[in-house]
Design goal:
Number of helices: 4
Radius of gyration: 27 Å
Strand content: under 5%
Number of strands: 0
Largest sheet: none
Order of helices and strands: HHHH
Length: about 150
């Protein structure tokens, strides 16, 4: 329903825009007050934006609201990545700026370096070093003695 409302609103908006360009100067529609046309444009823009947003949210709810195997891993990784990415961006910019790589290469290298650095540091350093885990918002690992059984969680 919201998709059809969004499509109708954008169609109405573009129809008004086309009418404004193709109508002859002496047309009756051109004689209507400017406030009417401005209101039409603002209302259709607002209806379109809200309906498009609600359509995307509804689509996401219907298709993405289910458990994924990788979701617990990503949930654990969010805070460490948040803490790491800021420092990595600054460090990469500090090292790459003197190279004058251009408007395409430099941002791509910063993006790749930030994502790669977050993956490597989270996976191979933060998750595996026990004393680093709490510093990055992760639960501390409980050492398990060989042969011991873990208590059942409800």
């Amino acid at each position: 329903m919201t998709l059809w409302l969004a499509l109708g609103a954008i169609g109405w908006y573009f129809g008004i825009r086309v009418l404004g360009r193709v109508l002859p100067v002496d047309s009756e529609l051109r004689q209507w007050p400017d406030g009417f046309w401005t209101t039409q444009v603002l209302v259709t823009q607002s209806v379109y934006l809200w309906c498009a947003l609600l359509t995307l949210l509804g689509w996401a709810k219907m298709t993405l609201d289910r458990p994924f195997r990788w979701l617990p891993y990503c949930t654990e990784a969010i805070y460490p990545w948040y803490m790491l990415h800021q420092s990595l961006i600054i460090a990469l910019l500090f090292w790459l700026k003197p190279l004058q790589l251009g408007p395409w290469t430099e941002p791509l290298l910063v993006l790749a370096g930030t994502v790669g650095g977050c993956v490597l540091m989270h996976e191979y350093l933060i998750r595996r070093v026990g004393w680093l885990r709490p510093l990055f918002g992760l639960k501390a690992r409980i050492p398990v003695k060989p042969g011991a059984t873990l208590p059942a969680t409800a």
